[in-house]
Amino acid sequence: MVTTLDEKLESAYQEVLRRNPGEIEFHQAVREVLETLGPVLAKYPEFAEHKIIQRVCEPERQIIFRVPWQDDQGRVQINRGFRVEFNSALGPYKGGLRFHPSVYLGIIKFLGFEQIFKNALTGLPIGGGKGGSDFDPKGKSDSEIMRFCQSFMTELYRHLGEYTDVPAGDIGVGGRELGYLFGQYKRITNRYESGVLTGKGLSWGGSRVRTEATGYGTIFFADEMLKARGDRLEGKTCVVSGSGNVAIYAIEKATALGAKVIACSDSNGVIVDHDGLDLALIKQIKEVERRRISVYGQEKPSATYLENGNIWTIPCQVALPCATQNELNGKDAEMLVKNGCIAVAEGANMPTTPEGVRIFQDAGLAYGPAKAANAGGVATSALEMQQNASRDSWSFEYTEQRLHQIMIDIHRDCHETAAEFGAPGNYVVGANITGFVKVARSMLAMGLI
Ligand code: NAP
Predict the structure, then answer these.
(1) Model-level pTM?
(2) SS3 string of 326-390?
């Protein structure tokens, strides 16, 4: 992996640091992309001439707003809402909403920036954006969640539209929250505009496979990386961090393809079950009862619960980080390599620190970065938009087949681009360049906007 930037890229990066002080996750995401773009500027000097890099690093629009709501005790609570409409060269802004106390502008910008290139990789007409709030849904009643979502949408609605900006879920935003958000949008606008949000329930415009898509897609990508090396996921021992939407469906598809998943986690601890995780029990705990993963340890004698444990110390052949950013550092990467890990596919966004990535690449692991490996979620969101636009509803089998083919195509494009730019097998180079070139060409075609 290249660690220094050439002169033009360095000055663009310095400008990003100067303009966005303190937004460390955003700096990290920008640097990771810029580190791979030197050969692109050499091949396409017009991108530098038209300052495409500087333009792509500056969001088209950043919205920050107050979200006042009342808790069950009648007390007034104030949160901050964000929507960063980053780039619309390829289509309406598209990207999820995150509700988590750690959310601030730097998190939303890193996610929005990544989303631009990820969405380009899907080959579907969607631009990049992201939003959310520092609201913590944990421990809140359904009524509190509803009041918060209604207040959040009361401001956000004016910026949305099926041809303008189309949010979806992310950490802390699932089917329940999207229901409340869509209900409020419909009420305020007096429009049943299905295509304005994705991840909807099946009875009100949602797509089959959307819930499963990010996790399934990550597993399809992992399988493709292994196939490119004459291997496959079947028979492999896997570890999946997190136990939310992405983690659950990564576990489901990995198991369906014949792998054995022996560990998962939440922010309090890790569950290890060498018999293979019981997914029905995890779904009951997490999707139905909304409880902590420690409950699994109480219900399954075969399992061990490690309070505050580090999941990356558990030996596995395939590691699937599916929780959050920077959850896998250099030390963790060293441990995984030492324990015989051969592949890493990122279900979460930017879960591996730059040092961790370097260690994986130096050790020759198959390393699938988030932009490519977890693009199945947003790709299926775009399929949901297609179904909404044509007032149609596809079968599970057909939708999954479309998702699977999209992941195969993304893998192929990244693999070929990496080889073309002199870095065979380097999916970071492949994903960044493939995504960036599509966006850059479109921006050039549209003039100085
Ligand atoms: P989710 O359903 O809310 O689940 C998040 C999981 O990660 C939970 O198990 C949570 O544990 C854990 N987690 C969150 N923050 C953590 C932290 N700071 N430290 C340790 N664990 C933490 O969210 P999700 O939709 O699965 O998203 C997971 C990741 O995938 C995120 O990086 C997201 O951006 C990415 N992603 C999601 C989608 C999608 O379609 N949903 C698409 C592409 C990428 P607790 O419950 O203890 O907090």
Answers:
(1) 0.98
(2) CCECHHHHHHHHHCCCCEEECCCCCCECHHHHHHHHHCCCEEECHHHHCCHHHHHHHHHHHHHHC
Type and span of the H or E element at 265: strand 260-266
What letter would DSSP give residue 92? S
The rounded distance, in Å, linking the Cα atoms of 186 and 190 is 5
Ligand 1 centroid–CA 9 distance in Å is 32
The pLDDT tens digits for 107-164 are 999 999 999 999 999 999 999 999 999 999 999 999 999 999 999 999 999 999 999 9
Strand partners, 241: 321
Q: Is 347 in the pocket of ligand 1 (CB under 6 A)?
A: yes
**426 and 361 Cβ atoms separated by less than 8 Å:** yes
What is the structure's pLDDT at 1?
45
Which residue has its alpha carbon closest to ligand 1 atom 11?
A: 266
Residue 378 Cα to ligand 1 midpoint, Å, equals 15
Express as a percent the part of the chain with pLDDT over 90.
98
Take residue 146 and report the two structure tokens written for it.
């509803």
